[in-house]
DNA sequence: CATGCGGTTAACAATTTGATAATATCAGAA
DNA sequence: TTCTGATATTATCAAATTGTTAACCGCATG
């Protein structure tokens, strides 16, 4: 999935379409529009948007119809869908959500609230992926507990991994020995000074990449 | 698998607390309650709910404070959070969403709308380990409780199946032993440490396929 | 009531990890 | 240069963690 998220908006009122489009484009999204249900389906098939904002009341196929049709296709099973509606009718709202929508907004719509909601949805969706840090050739994947350097995986033991992850969490920053002890070993455990050195050495060895610099008398820092 | 989702509700009005609790329990959720912000934090730490519903206006720490505190801790980075508010103030709503909440509801709250929204959020979150998973030669059919590898069916016992299904639901991800215990055995049951190992072994044996890797000191992960 | 299966545990083996001691190196101060 | 305070390296050992096997219990089934 590319970084720029595509959003399809379907509404039969040109004014609303324009306002929403303007605001979402301002937030950095790529926006596609449709004036009715059928057009929305066409555009969805053509562009495969990440999010579809559907007005419920549209001539021809209404929003709920469109949602149902889309949800039947595997390609759109996971696409985010938000309903817009002029009527704040509870029954419709519930039916909308149960059709498989992710949110439901009633008009009049505040553009800022809309963009906040859109952002919130994408924020949540992006978290589903594994949380990993990329630093040049080096990828540290906390979820998979794997270090990947230039395409090949490197296995580190727990302490080694956590130590590297800590240093890499703020590249360039010098971590004091005490800081490292507290973060990796915790305040309870007490270990000798050489312990850190040994682990640093093992990391350097396994990565055979000189990315950890010693700052004599102070601590260590990570740099590529 | 203990599929039962835990929901924590924090509100200082006992009536609202009760109504929401009743409705969500009716939907099959496990509900925990808190009367103020501090209590909410305690309960969150204790129970690790899947969703937290926070009233914004509470004595002591308000909902936004609680959300901020929780979001700073890695353990609650991914927890779903919904705000409730008596004031339909746009600014507050936007601030709430930008704090990292997933939704924002204004009072008076329709219990049915609330449950619809809650369902919608969980539906989205669960999209992964739903019905059946295909992974190369391996097919896992949740409905039929059947594993199929290279065309032939393999019979696994329930726990074995659940365990494999869990690991396979996110290939590559390392599942901590605690995570496995919570997902497969539930929070109530307490079993010894060797129990997981033994089941892992049985799976490895029956599949005679080296797809489960142990990450010493951390947990297990599934990879083809 | 015997049998088999699933699930758990105990007991021990095998393995890996992490800490330390001992020794070597190195950079800067005297 | 020599000394000194620091870190690097190496080997070693104890502790933590997991693998394996067999035994046990409860329960459903014939």
Distance between the termini of chain A: 27 Å
Largest sheet of chain A: 5 strands, parallel
Oligomeric composition of the shown chains: homodimer
> What is the total tally of β strands of chain A?
12
Mean model confidence by pLDDT of chain A: 89
Structural class of chain A: alpha/beta
List the helices and strands and how they pair.
The structure is a homodimer of 224-residue chains.
Chain A: E1 6-10, H1 14-26, E2 30-34, H2 37-47, E3 51-55, H3 63-72, E4 80-85, H4 90-98, E5 103-106, H5 111-127, E6 132-135, E7 138-141, E8 146-149, E9 152-154, H6 158-169, E10 174-176, H7 177-185, H8 194-207, E11 212-215, E12 219-222
Parallel strand pairs in A: 1-2, 1-3, 3-4, 4-5
Antiparallel strand pairs in A: 6-7, 7-8, 8-9, 10-12, 11-12
Helix pairs in contact in A: 1-5, 2-3, 6-7, 6-8
The structure holds a DNA duplex (30 and 30 nucleotides).
